[in-house]
Design a protein that fits this description.
about 70 residues, single chain, mainly alpha
Amino acid sequence: MQKKFYLSQKDKKIGGVCGGLAEYFEVDPFMVRLVVFLAMFFGGVSFWVYIIIWLLAPKGPEVGGYLK
């Protein structure tokens, strides 16, 4: 079965891009966020890449609702 990239619905801070990348590559989400932050700080281009991925990538499957 092929892996597919989705925006994370369970581990998202802003758009779910970093959480989705972490799930896809099976790494810690903090490390992905750190790399993206450093790339934005030192490179600048990754901000636009992040926005484009956020707009174009499909949302992941829902992970259940909240208990009330």
